[in-house]
Amino acid sequence: MPAQRFQPGFRLSIVDVVFLVLGGIGAAFATTMNLWLAAAIGFVFLHFFLFCNIIRMPRVLEYIWALTFAGLVASCNALGAVSWTTVFAAASALTVVLVSIAVRQPSYHGVGWQRFNPRLPEWWNAQTSGNDQHSK
Fold first, then answer.
1. What are the pLDDT digits (tens) for 32-88?
2. Which residues, other chains included, contact 4 with Cβ-Cβ below 8 Å and sequence gap of 6+?
3. Prediction pTM value
């Protein structure tokens, strides 16, 4: 397995761009059926971009957000227990909490890592040097 390079900060690949374009097309198409559905699709794709490309959030935090959002949408659509406004407000509040948790991790390597995690290079070196020793 090739060694990973230290590349913190914003990242964007062609796959990310294709994914975002497809999400935009899906959201645009959904406007013909239901504006709330279109907003939900756009909301999810923008969160994908935020979590994966800007914050570069740990996967477990992404899963927490996704499961919570899915539960909120189910509560809204299937049960009518909450409104779409509540879904978006609660998911946005959770986003703030999860981003706050992510930027406090010793592994934080998203945008602003120099400010939030100035010891990242030390953490990275400790992690990668440990991997080299295990592979020998």
1. 999 999 999 999 999 999 999 999 999 999 999 999 999 999 999 888 889 999 999
2. 128
3. 0.85
**Cβ density class 42-73: b for 16+ within 10 Å, e for less:** bbbbebbbbbbbbbbbbeebbebbeebbeebb
In this structure, which amino acid lies at residue 99? V
- Scored b (16 or more CB within 10 A) or e, 98-113 reads bbeebbeeeebbbbeb
Domain boundaries, the chain: 14-135
**Distance, C-alpha 78 to centroid of its chain:** 26
Furthest-apart CA atoms within the chain: distance in Å: 58
What are the CA-CA distances from residue 136 to residues 1, 69, 133 (Å)?
12, 43, 6
Task: Sort 75 into a burial class: Cβ within 10 Å, 0-12 / 13-18 / 19+.
Answer: middle
Q: Distance between CA atoms of 131 and 124, rounded to whole angstroms?
A: 11
Q: From CA 33, how far away is CA 84, in angstroms rounded?
A: 15
